[in-house]
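Morning run. Coffee first, then this:
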Amino acid sequence: MIEYSVLVGGKAGDGISQAGQIIGSIFSSMGYYVYQYVDYPSLIRGGHNYCIIRAADHPVAAYRNEIDVILAFDQQSTDKHAHRLKPDGIIIYDTNRVKAKGIGISLSGIIDQFQGLPVMGNTAMIGALFQYLGVPWETIEPVLVKKMPKKTEINLNIAKSAFSQVQSNRNLPVPGGDARPFMTGNEWIGLGLLAGGLDAYIAYPMTPSSGILHFLAEIAEDAGIIVYHPESEIAVILMALGLAYAGKKTAVGTSGGGFCLMTEGLSLAGQSEIPIVIVVSQRYGPSTGLPTYTGQSDLLFICHAGHGEFPRWIAAPATPREAYYLSALAVQVAWRFQVPAFILSDKSFSEGLYTGDKEMKAPAEFPYPKPSVPYQRYEESSDGISPILVPPEQGEVIKVNSYTHNEQGITTEDPAITIKMAEKRKQKAISLAAFSDTADSISVSGNPEADICIVCWGSVRGQVAEAVGDLTVRVISPLIIEPFPINSFTKVMQKVKKILVVEESATGQMDKILREKGFPPDELILRYDGRPSSIEELHEHIRRFV
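And here it is:
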């Protein structure tokens, strides 16, 4: 089994994240599976930033404590992380800023030689790293050219100069195979939304969801979509509902605090039955909390947000394939059932980088019921779903309403009609639950005969799946959280005698959901410091339980 971990550390402004992405892309171009964890404070300059790039000849979705190479841009990077080096590990460091044992190179000396910018020190470090690993320049150069379209020649000269100053110490194996796309979870979500037929994306920037806005804005013209950044999250949700009323398949993105401002608009979507996709990427709260760190403490909030009772659909992906498929499905579900459809992510998944497949599967578009004549926007039906038309439609009035309304959309306070419309929403919820309760709504891995199971969701599954190792356990993860796929979940839990829940929250919110559904967990492993667990840390916790 081939595996390699590189830690890149420095201050905000040193280009740490970009260096990590390029290193990961080079590994990916060689046929490796790659995962990158990014850790940074809420600062524009200074502080301590680092990322861990883990490359292997098998799929990876978490980081290990032990590191093969540290690229140290500053002293903190060695002081904080040198203890993580493997016995044969090495530190490659900037001699102008760091005192350490290892391989020293003068970043400013190389940069000045080619009249580069200070941030180009990250290019030098990349060159030094891959020469140390024994990777030929011909493998590195095309990735640098692609990833650095500006000042390409200077960056290449800087990287090659550092490359030539270091002696090769390793002979990094090449797994072979095609290069795989290496992107953030946010980018995989964005691609999935496009595959589902997205017409418009509206968002106000809020870490860690902002990457979707940036990604879709960059490709909006080529993708033929509208991307807009209004003045607030209240404007975001209302503008999105207006676009959806006009027939545009629309999604919005935010984090917990921004979603708080959207909740009245969410209830408007529930009452008016306007389709909307909402991506919520969690960070650790409450309030401003830890803006650049992770958590799973918004699960119950998303399940119950908004006043009044109305159906919603919530999916929580853990892999690029799931992010792509479920995001595409969210667009289709929102429009087929005319409900708010959520993609629930977190900082670890949204800003983590993963290799995925070049070709991804998207769901087929659902057929829509045909409207009757004359058209009634809220027409009764056996499944609770009314046919949808969008204006302009000749000869038809398409009236949506935030008030209780009759089938034509006209405001009413009649008790009988009020009951009828509530029953319509209840029937729609039943239809949505039947649609969602399939074998595909749950991920099951590990030992199929084990009577001990770990239940987790979202990005934590990547950590758990690797941490269990050869332990005799099953890993069960609901991909659809609302409506909860109770029949499918019951089926996979038939032989289970002990349940362990692993979650990044202080109170165990999945624990509460499982108890409500009749599956009380025996033990919880909760982490709530804003950081994901390493494979080794989590393995020890799980081993004690098993």
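The longest helix spans residues 415-436. Good start to the day.
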